[in-house]
Amino acid sequence: MRLKPAWVLLAALLSMGLVLAACGGEEATPTPSPQAGQTPTGPRQVKTDFGVTDTEIKLGHTNVLSGNLAAVYQPVSPALRAYFEYVNREKGGVCGRRINLIIEDNQYSPTVARQVVTKLIEQDRVVALVGDLGTPAVTGEVDYVNEQKVPLLYLSTGASKWGDFQRWPWTTGFIPDYVSEGRILGRYAQERFPNAKVGILYQNDDFGMDGRNGFKQEFKGQIVAEQSYESTATDISSQMANLRAAGADLVYLYSTPSFSAMAFRYMQQNNWRPQVMMSYVNPPVLTATIAGGGNAQAGLQLVQGTISTNYLLDYIADADKPEMKEHVRIMQTYGGPQVQSLSVYGQALAELMVETLKRACDAGDLTRQGVMRAAESIRGFRMSVLLPGITVNLGPRDHFAIQALMPVQIQPDGTPRPLRDQPISIE
Q1: How much is the pTM?
Q2: Residue 299: closest CA among 289, 286, 312, 313
């Protein structure tokens, strides 16, 4: 996914209050001592090959930590690290060993991603990679990582191609893939708006076409127009005008936040208010901030009522839940980012990785192969910050962790209101 440069950076800073950290190549920093009375557990004797000693389990992670996109995606990395440090300090690590996360900046670049994963594998000799972010970056590294037979687990990109377990047997996705999300939104549209005249706006790349194709698989009603845009475009007014001229009363946006914001502004400027559906890649407050020219409240007047999807607890709407209070405590105690949607995401990712390592330990095999087998064994596992009814299901022939989403409607304060009693699953 590609976002527009300067104003997305500004919007992300305004909506998230982020302070960027220079995390390239760093290892875990000192954190508070174990809780009083805790007795460290000794290491369990298990089979190992790379990245695992009697004292540590070494993992690698790449993310976009510099440039314009860093303000949007950077919080995932310190959230991952904070949860691992919580496990190290309060749970005695995993298998009697401390988790050591080494973070590298992939710069959202295929070339750079290949360079930094080569370092992680050949120099740092990590046992696995976790949560690598960005479709372009992962595209640049995936073949090499699989050739080296290193687990490339729980990718932070929803491209449907990551589910190709025959081509990339050492790779698993984490977030719902874009085809599945498109199908879920299409199914919900079919249930609630069967007579709608649908206009589709999508980004002309794997991301956009996956979301468009998934929607069309499930929605059997009338699609009056489809319009695409290039990720380098600076204006989509003509595409929006074509959707309006076709009589669309439901607009399906499979676009990234800057372009979704352009669509909302066009609707406002032309006094056109169709029902809108959009992908979960558009955080409501961020999208509203861009649409409002830096003013989130003004933008939320445009975005409210939009239907999207979610699979995680919301840091605002669910603030009083014990799971969210614990998330806040962990992030604040162990050097996490400001609590936000991506900090919740990072914890979910870390919880799943911890479960994977525990299973590998229980099987007595913390080799790369053992970690991969452990990942493929997970069925019906629920991280604490997932929405009720959503679980992780993986297998040797199923390499997408989450394939269920809750349709939600964006409220005036930017929080998501569930629209069903149970999520929609695509398994």
Answers
A1: 0.85
A2: 289
